[in-house]
Sequence to fold (243 residues):
Amino acid sequence: MKQYLPLIVLIALCAGQLKAQQYVEGIIVDQEENPLGFAHATNTDLNLGQVSNMNGKFNLLARKGDTITFSFVGFMKETLVVESVHLVNYLKVTLTEDSLLLPSITIYSDPYFKVPFNYQAESMDIGLAKSDKDPIKPGSLGPGESGGVGLTLYGPITAFSKDAKEQRKYGNALESSAETHYFDRYIENDTVKTQLCKIYDIDSSTYDRIIVSLNNQYPQIQTLNKPEEIWNWLLQHFHNVLN
Fold:
């Protein structure tokens, strides 16, 4: 019997751990029973969060005694202390719309007030040559050289030149890179990567493959610049892929 004692202790510890870590499942709705997709459910004790799917459903790791907060833009935050009954039943969390009273503004009419109107149109010169003595500059328009119907374009127009296109392309690339700079730094952070690999028991290569699938499936996430929003998106996607 003594030789089996370590094995019995190990099984008891594993069973206790499985019992301690369970999931709270449910749906988040508004007061009219409409599901709230992409609402936030956060376990403040474990520092874990999740975003509900499009149907408002969530599945969050929790233990008895943990505190879970539910939030959504435009709604009041709700807090739940996990009890045994919450771990074995499907929950329905109802969020109340947060009404914000704006200050009232009274508008009085003034019959003697008139909007000033002194706009003067400016002349526009498109560069048509009036005589042979007028100089022709790049980008100027003239009558067709063959004497028929049409116009002749003299010289390059900067806005359509190859250099200008390359400059615009480079500027767009810089702007796109600036928008995704924070997200790229966040997912490459060793702490974030290590914690996700530990939570879902995966290796570094699996982490990289899931990140690539996230970028391809939800490219808009790359423009996020708030760490809690990125973390909740990562938890949601990793959970969907691995379960």
User: Anything to note?
Assistant: Strands lie at 22-29, 40-43, 48-51, 57-62, 67-71, 78-81, 91-94, 140-143, 151-154. The CA atoms of residues 124 and 140 lie 13 Å apart. The longest helix spans residues 162-187. Confidence is low (pLDDT under 50) at residues 119-132.
